Backbone:
């Protein structure tokens, strides 16, 4: 029989272990792009770093940014353009306080597609039509506007309607509520399998593009350096684990654990697409200098009030990533 005192010590030890974990609130858009976070959780990488990570979904980029500014969330994963937009006063809404947002690591590059209804054959077919965006002034909306411009359309030739997250827009497109939208991998796969057409790959038209990055506030990062470094280390290890071919079957299983309605064959296609050679997750959590410059170039042209933006370093602080990598 186990002595009660030993049981007490065991319970105390377990309580101490749980207590030792640092809570970390993460907000992200729902969908398969969260796979590195799922791997870090399910493989115990966050736990090893003594982090208790809670991931919450956001309906749109406005709520995501506001939750960071209000200290309702600690870290976000979202498009690099959102950091630039709000830091430059070009965001969708005016924030309650001056933002001090920055990107601390990269999660993905490219994977931005303009997907349209089956009846849309070219850009001219979008005249007079309504297209869905997350927010009109930020994120992939500017990519959409630039693609339409290069396709021969002017501002008054179409309408943009803010709808929210990519998953919401994909569903709305398949319900024929809109004639087109920007979708990011893997959320273009289901519409395309049903006859919706990919009118453009952003990288083919615009060049390299930095998509998802890790975002937080400089003030929070200074006060919580160890937690941020631990989060970066676990997330980076999760991304690198995903790129190991021997882990592909388990990666698909983890994907389906978090998205159980996705059939296995589809989940495999989703994971493969997220691990592309030229687009998708970036090894080591790397940021893409050329991709960030594309973001600045498009925002310099289409952001309001108009500003000339040329220095990605204004929106970064890579010291935390270097610390996570032991540099």
Residues:
């Amino acid at each position: 029989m186990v002595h009660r005192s030993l049981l007490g010590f065991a319970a105390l030890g377990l309580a101490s272990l749980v207590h030792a974990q640092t809570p970390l609130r993460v907000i992200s858009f729902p969908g398969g792009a969260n796979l590195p976070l799922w791997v870090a959780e399910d493989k115990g990488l966050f736990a090893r770093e003594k982090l208790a990570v809670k991931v919450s979904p956001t309906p749109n980029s406005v709520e995501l940014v506001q939750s960071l500014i209000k200290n309702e969330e600690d870290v976000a994963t979202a498009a690099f353009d959102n950091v630039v937009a709000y830091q430059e006063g070009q965001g969708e809404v005016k924030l309650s306080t001056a933002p001090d947002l920055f990107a601390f690591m990269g999660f993905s590059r490219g994977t931005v597609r303009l997907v349209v209804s089956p009846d849309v054959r070219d850009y001219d077919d979008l005249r007079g039509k309504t297209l869905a965006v997350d927010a009109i002034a930020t994120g992939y909306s500017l990519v959409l506007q630039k693609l339409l411009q290069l396709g021969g359309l002017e501002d008054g030739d179409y309408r943009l309607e803010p709808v929210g997250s990519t998953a919401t827009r994909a569903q709305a497109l398949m319900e024929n509520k809109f004639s087109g939208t920007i979708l990011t991998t893997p959320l273009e796969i289901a519409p395309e399998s049903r006859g919706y057409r990919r009118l453009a790959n952003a990288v083919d038209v615009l060049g390299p593009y930095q998509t998802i990055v890790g975002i937080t506030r400089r003030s929070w990062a200074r006060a919580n350096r160890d937690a941020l470094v631990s989060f970066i280390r676990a997330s980076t290890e999760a991304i690198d684990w995903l790129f190991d071919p021997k882990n592909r079957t388990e990666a698909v299983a983890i994907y389906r654990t978090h998205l159980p309605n996705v059939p296995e064959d589809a989940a495999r296609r989703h994971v493969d697409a997220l691990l592309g050679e030229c687009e998708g997750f970036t090894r080591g959590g790397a940021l893409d200098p050329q991709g960030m410059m594309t973001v600045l170039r498009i925002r310099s042209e289409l952001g309001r009030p108009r500003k000339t933006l040329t220095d990605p370093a204004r929106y970064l602080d890579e010291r935390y990533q270097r610390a996570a990598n032991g540099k």
Observations:
- DSSP finds 15 helices and twelve strands in the chain.
